[in-house]
Design a protein that fits this description.
CATH superfamily of the largest domain: Glycogen Phosphorylase B
Strand content: 15-25%
CATH class of the largest domain: Alpha Beta
CATH topology of the largest domain: Rossmann fold
Largest sheet: 7 strands, parallel
Strand order of the largest sheet: 3-2-1-4-5-6-7
Order of helices and strands: HEHEEHEEHHEHEHEHEHEHEHEHEHHH
Structural class: alpha/beta
Helix content: 40-55%
Number of domains: 2
Length: 387
């Protein structure tokens, strides 16, 4: 139960955090970031007089509902489908007045009433490659980002690349932007024992020879390129070749085009869509995959790259700046425009096990450079700097 008296005690410092994204049942992207960041922040010791309050429109669930000392939750009920952040949270900031309000997504309240607001901007793909979004989503994200850029006291950026993009497109003073790199959840995404892997493979009726993609099946992720690449890869493999392409994720914008590619593919019986699965199952699939393919046109960070290399998976990812920043030398980088080149590198990886082993070795080292603990410490530093 939320204690109103905390906010009325001038000797108490209150950090209010939006937990609405973290509380989603099926989390991807921003939702996963919010969840893992909040959970990591719970493990960080609070200073004397510090308290944290999690705001949400519905009661928190599962792990998120477990509150360490100094943490509380407050449900800000809202019956309408829209307007919770812009209206209900604005009202809460007016009447309760926490010392700082943090929003892990880039949609902030319409009014903060002089309460400092910190928000995370994950990417601005909607400005760089407009056709990757539906017009309605592009307008909504554009409006939210403009408000965040204009009104937020501090902005967290998930990569140096995204910081540079924000400065370039929105002309923001770099001193307002703080880079807090992301991580994989290494409690789940790690090397697994063969028994655990086999049980997941049996569930989805998969063998040991497959290329894996994980992410929303949408235009932004460029799934069509690896479908075409898989076709080229299979052309010279001969009859009875066991390799499959496994697509994990729910449909997104542009899925109809992706589905058409699959239906018309000469290899459609070997292209497996298995929908949304748990992180534990994704980890097992990554552990077994011949390689993880991540051909996206644009990313703000690209957590799946880290998840894959933490699982000991060879990584083939698109040749875009942020992937170089995150993956370093642990990946083969390929133009997202060139399915033939993807097929060539897939063939090369299968033909030469040493290439795969070198990638796995480098990936294991690279993955250790990132942690949610580090992200949580950096985030708290930014919040505390506003007191």
């Amino acid at each position: 139960m939320f204690n109103i008296n905390l906010l009325q005690n001038s000797r108490t410092t209150i950090f209010a955090i939006d937990a609405s994204s973290a509380n989603k049942e099926k989390r991807t992207g921003v939702e996963n970031y919010a969840f893992h960041l909040i959970e990591a922040m719970k493990k960080e010791p609070l200073k004397d007089g510090e308290r944290v309050v999690l705001f949400s429109p519905t009661p928190l669930k599962d792990e998120l509902a477990k509150m360490p000392k100094g943490w509380e939750s407050k449900v800000l009920s809202w019956k309408l489908k829209r307007g919770w952040m812009q209206t209900r949270v604005s009202w809460e900031l007016l009447i309760r007045r926490p010392n700082v309000f943090f929003v892990p997504a880039q949609s902030i309240p319409s009014f903060s009433f002089f309460v400092p607001v910190v928000t995370t901007i994950h990417d601005i793909a909607f400005r760089r490659i407009r056709n990757l979004y539906s017009p309605s989503v592009r307008r909504r994200v554009s409006t939210a980002t403009k408000r965040a850029v204009k009104k937020a006291t501090r902005i967290l950026s998930v990569s140096q690349f995204t910081k540079q993009e924000l400065q370039s497109v929105y002309n923001i003073d770099g001193s307002k932007i703080f880079v807090t790199l992301l991580s994989a959840n290494t409690n789940i995404f790690k090397r697994l024992d063969q028994k655990t892997i086999e049980s997941v493979l049996q569930k989805f009726r998969l063998g040991h020879n497959f290329f894996l993609f994980v992410g929303r099946l949408e235009k932004k992720k460029n799934v069509a390129t690896i479908i075409r690449a898989f076709e080229v890869f299979k052309q010279n493999r001969g009859m009875g070749d066991p390799f499959e392409l496994v697509l994990v994720g729910e449909p997104g914008f542009g899925y109809e085009e992706i589905k058409t590619y699959i239906e018309r593919s000469s290899q459609k019986t070997l292209i497996r869509e298995i929908g949304f699965v748990s992180d534990e199952e994704v980890s097992a699939l990554m552990n077994s995959a011949t390689a993880f393919l991540f051909p996206s046109w644009y990313e703000g960070f690209g957590i799946p790259n880290l998840e894959a290399i933490a699982c000991g998976t060879a990584l083939l990812t698109s040749d875009i700046p942020v992937h170089h920043e995150v993956a370093g030398d642990s990946s083969i980088f390929i133009s997202p425009k060139d399915p033939e080149l993807w097929a060539k590198q897939m063939t090369r990886l299968v033909a030469d096990p040493q290439i795969k082993e070198k990638l796995i070795e480098k990936g294991s080292i690279r993955a250790q450079e990132f942690s949610w603990e580090k992200t949580a410490k950096q985030t708290l530093e930014v919040l505390r700097s506003l007191i």
